[in-house]
């Protein structure tokens, strides 16, 4: 299975909004808002929809911060590949609220709970929170991180 997905980090000054996922892939972990892109949607449309569904806010300015590939292997075979577009937004409408899917919580940029997040996040999220763009490829075996590569992308305006 190959799927196209999104992640969004709302930023307010030195604080970042993370969600505690209550179900689905990554349940019990903190992450950005996001999910799968549905047929007919652009990744931007999908991430706006997910923000509305998961925490009741509408981002009004998105900044693209990179592309991540997550490959999951099971018994040496590729089980799934996830292409994830990453965005940040400093402007949105509404107040973050809890839903069936997610509980939102603000964290200081210097105090992100990496020990309660996906193993790869500490390898690329600091770069994104520093205002830069990344490409990363992460290979998991049974959802344990085995190999990775992370590139800093050049800023092209
Ligand atoms: N290794 C990883 N590190 C990370 O930070 N986020 C990851 C990740 N692997 C997947 N994700 C994120 C990307 C995307 O936002 C989300 C995908 O989760 P789901 O499949 O639960 O999405 P949906 O909310 O669309 O699910 P359903 O609608 O329930 O199918 O998980």
UniProtKB/TrEMBL annotation:
A biological-process GO annotation: DNA protection
Cellular component, GO, one term: cytoplasm
Nudix hydrolase domain location: 1-130
Family named by the database record: Belongs to the Nudix hydrolase family.
Known partners and oligomeric status: Monomer.
Gene3D superfamilies documented for this protein: Nucleoside Triphosphate Pyrophosphohydrolase (3.90.79.10)
InterPro entries from the UniProt entry: 8ODP, NUDIX_hydrolase-like_dom_sf, NUDIX_hydrolase_CS, NUDIX_hydrolase_dom
Keyword Metal-binding: yes
Top EC class for this record: hydrolase
CDD domains (UniProt xref): NUDIX_MTH1_Nudt1 (cd03427)
Pfam families reported in the protein's UniProt record: NUDIX
Keyword Lipoprotein applies: no
Entry's EC annotation: 3.6.1.56
Protein name in the entry: Oxidized purine nucleoside triphosphate hydrolase
Keywords, alphabetical: Hydrolase, Magnesium, Metal-binding
């Amino acid at each position: 299975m190959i799927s196209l997905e999104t992640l969004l980090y709302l930023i307010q000054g030195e604080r970042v909004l993370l969600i505690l996922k209550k179900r689905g892939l990554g349940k019990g972990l903190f992450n950005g808002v996001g999910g799968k892109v549905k047929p007919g949607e652009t990744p931007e449309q999908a991430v706006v929809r997910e923000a509305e569904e998961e925490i009741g806010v509408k981002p009004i300015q998105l900044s693209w911060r990179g592309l991540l590939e997550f490959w999951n292997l099971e018994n040496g075979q590729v089980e799934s590949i996830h292409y994830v577009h990453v965005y940040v937004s400093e402007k949105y409408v509404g107040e973050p609220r809890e839903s069936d899917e997610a509980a939102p919580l603000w964290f200081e940029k210097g105090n992100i709970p990496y020990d309660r997040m996906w193993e790869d996040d500490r390898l690329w999220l600091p770069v994104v929170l520093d205002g830069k763009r990344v490409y990363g490829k992460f290979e998991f075996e049974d959802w344990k991180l085995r190999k990775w590569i992370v590139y800093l992308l050049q800023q092209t305006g």
